[in-house]
Amino acid sequence: MSLNASRLSAGDTLALLRNGWSAQSDGKLTATWMLHGRPGVGKSQIVQQLADEIGARLFDLRLTTIEPQDLRGLPYYDHDARKTVWYRPEDLPDDPTRPAILFLDELTAASQYLQPTVYGLLQERRVGQHKLPDGVMIIAAGNTVEDGAVAYEMGTALSDRLVHVYVQADADDWLENYAAPKGLAPAVCAFLRGRPDLLDTTEEALRRGDVIACTPRAWERASTILKAIPERKARMAMLSGTIGEAVAAEFAVVAEEVEALVHVEDLLKASASERFARFPNTLYGLNAVVFALVGAVTSDSLPAVIDTLEQIGRIASHSDDPAFAQLPLTELCAFGFEMLLTKALKEGWQDSFIASPAYARYAATRREQGLD
Q1: Burial annotation 153-182 (CB, 10 A radius, 16+ → b, else e)
Q2: Distances (CA, A) of 200 to 30, 217, 290
Q3: What per-residue confidence (pLDDT) applies to 149?
Q4: pLDDT at residue number 223
Q5: pLDDT band for position 357 (cuts 50, 70, 90)
Q6: At 219, is the secondary structure helix, strand, or coil?
Q7: Beta strands 74-78 and 83-87: pairing type?
Q8: Which residues contact 60 (CB under 8 A, 6 or more apart)?
Q9: Which of 138, 143, 258, 372 has the highest local Cβ count within 10 Å?
Q10: What is the average per-residue pLDDT within 63-78?
Q11: Residue 303 near residue 356 (C-beta atoms within 8 A)
């Protein structure tokens, strides 16, 4: 069976869930959401980010590891009432004063014996006598049979209780809304900006019969490896075991280039004239500089970061190196400022842009070029 639902990037899915939460908080809509998508595409991260944004406690239940009684609770005998009653399990939200998200992960791989218990949560927001408070948002997630993961076809009785969304990998969305804000290794971000086709290779890996595929989750692990393992041979073996041997070999070339050429702290400390001589003259290197600047920016370093980004757009006119003339520096500068502005608005750093002569020059240049 095919999933005839909208296919959205992780960022668009998060925006949709924000709308759902807003409608639920206003008492206009109470829906149960089902996030489909390939392994490693970021479904769990979307839910965690939403919980952080709305200040909700996250109850993360992996349905492949629990039994029906884990949701129903523990029975005991009430001698006065002459009845068997049930202790409420700690994995079900019960605080009516605090928002919560009940995340039912791996729903499509759950045991058939567990599904009737889950039905009650999805349709009636209760298990037996245990009701969920109004401030609880229910989100489920799972893989499809076509993803090569352990999964079962979802029956109509279950499917009909859910609002379905298919989450798909999108390189621009992932880089701008997840990788850069999380401070992933600049080499990973620079590489994937140049090779967006390698963000998610699950389909190709399944077709070839490969065990290892590139996924957003795998690239995040690759970032951790780069930062944690300095020894080249060990690092290469770990990268090969994370994103596959062929991709790791291609990526290692970029990672070594970035490691040799990109020194953001030195750039920020340098004078304006010195920076032009310190910029790398390759697109991968400059992409890495941009991601490193945005990932490491603080309120104190923001003015220097704005100055540096503005200078990237003017490198070609201040350098004798013909390599710079071949690079899309205007687009790269705009891309960097877009990410930086997003982060600044979130942190409340808008005044630094208003007071920055460098940003005023950048904005004026954009207007002269008819780009704003």
Answers
A1: ebeeebeebbeebbbbbbbebbbbbbbbbe
A2: 33, 9, 23
A3: 55
A4: 97
A5: very high
A6: helix
A7: antiparallel
A8: 44, 47, 103, 105
A9: 258
A10: 81
A11: yes
